[in-house]
Amino acid sequence: MPIATRTAKTTWNGSLAKGEGSVSVGSEALGELPVTWAARTERPDGKTSPEELIAAAHATCFSMALALTLGERHTPPERIDVEARCTLDEVDGAPRITVVELQVEAAVPDLDAAGFSDALGAANELCPVSNALKGGVDVRVDGQLAS
Asked: What is the DSSP letter of 93?
């Protein structure tokens, strides 16, 4: 039996270049978000993109995986900040998501840099979004402890 199943829905109207659409999530937490090809490849202008949504999902998922990992090691975090950058590039003439970079800063009392580095690696192995991207996307994790 699955732990959870979540939904999202997109409606697209028109051609790729001139069309537009909207995406909403089943929980209704985000409202209806507009999407266009131009917002994806040029300027967002208040619209979102699949890459931005993947970045949001990855940053959120990784922060949870890191919190769990640190807690299991008896060094629970006070705060975790994760910024994710999802890159859309052209590969062999087609658009591909090539890299997701996670920049992590965390306030973790009583943890040294080596322990934090080890926890980052363990969290990356645990994170369901990191695992979903493996094999097709280069996931890079860099982090530092907050001073």
From this structure: T
Look at residue 147 in the predicted model and tell me its pLDDT.
82
Per the confidence metrics, is the pTM higher than 0.85? yes
DSSP-derived secondary structure for 18-66:
T-EEEEEETT-SS--EEE-HHHHHS--TT-B-HHHHHHHHHHHHHHHHH
The superfamily (CATH) of domain 50-145 is: K homology (KH) domain (3.30.300.20)
Q: For residue range 58-73, what is the model confidence (pLDDT) as tens digits?
A: 999 999 999 999 999 9
